[in-house]
Design goal:
heterodimer; A: mainly alpha; two-stranded parallel ribbon; globular; B: 477 residues; Peroxisomal Thiolase, Chain A, domain 1; seven-stranded mixed sheet; 14 strands; 35% helix
Chain lengths: 108, 477
Amino acid sequence: MDLQSQESILRLSEQHGKDDLIVLIGAPDAEAAEITAETVVLGDPAYAGALAGVQLGLDVFHVLEDEVKTAIPDDVWEAQIGVMEDILDTDAVSSAVAGMRGKSQDTP
Amino acid sequence: MSNPVISGAAQVLAHAPGLARHGSKPRRELPRDGEVESSFLGSLRTFDQAVAYPPHQAYIGAIHPRAMPERPWFATTDPEASRFAPSGELMPEDELLGLLAAVDHFDLLVLAEDVAEQAAAALAGHPLAKHLDLDRIERAVGDVEKVSAEPGALGLHLGAHRLGAAMRRGDEADEALSAYVLLDNLATKATATLSLLHLLVNLDVDPASIDYVIGCGEEAVGDRYQRGGGNMAKAVAEVAGLSEASGMDVKNFCAAPIPALVVGAALVASGTFQRVAVVAGGSLAKLGMKFQGHLRHEMPVLEDVLGGSAALIEADDGASPRIRLDVVGRHRVSAGGSSPQIMEALAVEPLQRAGIPMTEVDDYATELHDPEITEPQGSGNVPERNYRTIAALAARSGAITKEELSDFAATRGMPGFAPTQGHLASALCYLPHALDRLRGGEAERVMMIAKGSLFLGRMSQMSDGMSVLLEKNPEGA
């Protein structure tokens, strides 16, 4: 995740609290989705940005996950996301992000 | 009004492994870690490796991108591969240093004596020798160790270790005239000039017959009072001997080449000018941009070449492919910024407006970045993503079925083969191939699509893009 986005997410989590924040990812492949999710859950794996060593444990979803899709009106989904759903590997990106979600709770 | 055509295109690469450390990324990263620096310097390619690299052969027009072998490409050895090809060449680094000196009208580049001799001798035997001011190479000789130690100067290497040249700054306090910025601009000027000269000689066109030159490179020429003042185009016109031409630059990040072609064609269609050349040089700043990914995957530093491109637009000659000014796509402010929305505006809407089914376009040329360069650094396969988007839009428009999606992308798209100098990768690199296929009857129509990331400049969160259709000349054989 780029350094600017890391700073923004850190700032928003301080302003609004972690419980009222959900991170939505639009990464096109599983690898990028997983790294992005990891950054906002466990911290920046590249140790380069504002989230290096910062375990925010935020709730994170890929925009193609069912939980997100059902929360969005059908016409908006169709206009904004529909084509990408045809193109991307929904299962792979969804499970990459779902696997990372809640990981910070595993560690004491 | 006359129908504008593109009568020719040329494309060059210049091997610059020694200059690669002055790319923006290596320039920032190498001084911080000696181990990374020695790993970088130990991973530079030889000239023969660069010539044999299949994407380079595709770039200079020796093979069609769809005829490239299976990946990996970087391990390719091919003693038969030639530096010269129908559309241009891949120039070795010693000749590049000579070329930089030959186009340096402010005597800022200093060459070591042996480097100058080597470059002058090699360039004297170059097919374009009589078009180059080779006397400047001799006049550039100086003490490179001494000059590179001057305040603000930059030592330049041939390959990993041989100090062969030095670049002086243009002003002691003006950042826009630092040695680094001027080297970047001079590299653009040299490679744009080289491609324009190849174009003129290939087409046997009188340089004095060209009225106007449009630059569409990524450089910013200027001084502290106007950092992007511009007109690289006229600087190139001057050194290439276009005595009757004037010029200007079209700026639009990586998307600039398509607006440049459209503006050039409009100037010809309106009768304002008879012949317009569009030129772009390479971006030194992009060299080594993704080197960390390459080193991590034990690959050579693949961003070690500067590109260049030139095209000639003129009134209908009854043979050359037409540029359809009535089939131009643009990314409107209100179009939306998601990838499919941008592609809808560029690849679908203009064809719909003209009543041309998407399946009647033989080739779609879009961002054709070499995936072997981008994937190791996590940037994915850019052209593949684009082609899947175009194919999905074709399926949604009813032009193809969902089952035909992969076939559409494979046969009307192509693997990426361009260096990551985005303006060259943005469709422009396909122009020589497009012209060949449209002339030879292998294709009827080619869609050229370019996109640019405006948000990088922090003045807008938007992207931009433009597309234009090329078509076989109906009067041609």
